[in-house]
Amino acid sequence: MRARMRIAAAVVSLPLLAGLAACGEIQEAQQGLQQANQQLQGAQQNLDTAQACLQAINAANFVPNFADPQKAQADAQAKVTELQQLADQTADETLKQNLLDVQESVQQVADGKIDIEASAEWTSAQLEKYQTVTTTCSRLAG
């Protein structure tokens, strides 16, 4: 009789033990999925930062043709809009401020405040702003 009780207890407990083992495997699988999701999110953030930096560097590399003042103003106004949109979309506060600094400088051209006589000084200052953007992006990538 005792043997039957032991066998019955073993038979009843086998599915329970198998279920516990399956629960452990499920938990491990869930942890693995969470880790994979975190890695994917990190990769997406890195990609977003790289794209933002590429766009920022391209936008900050603006130097109009001062020989044609009307075209320089029109090109500058288009670049001001682009820089504002990039700054609005940028999550990094330092890069955002760099873009706003470039935008402020380009706005001077759009407003007609920079002519061909002042263009060399403006271009030199613009180059410094461009280098600041590239330095910030290097730090973000690093």
Concise overview:
The chain has helices spanning about 1-60, 70-90, 95-110, 120-140.
Which whole number gives the mean pLDDT? Answer: 82
How many domains comprise the coordinates?
A: 1
Terminal-residue CA separation: 73 Å
Share of residues in strands: under 5%
* Shape type: rod-shaped
Which stretches are low in confidence, meaning pLDDT under 50 for 5 or more residues running? none
Sheet/helix structural class = mainly alpha
Order of helices and strands: HHHH
| Rg from Cα | 30 Å
Number of strands: 0
Q: Treating each run of at least 4 consecutive H or I residues as one helix, how many helices?
A: 4
Biggest sheet, open or closed, and with what strands and sense?
A: none
Residue share in helices?
over 70%
What does this protein look like?
With 142 residues, the protein is mostly helical. The chain has one domain (2-141). The protein has helices spanning 2-60, 69-89, 93-110, 119-141.
Characteristic terms for this protein:
142 residues; mainly alpha
Summarize the helices and strands and which ones pair or pack:
Elements: H1 2-60, H2 69-89, H3 93-110, H4 119-141
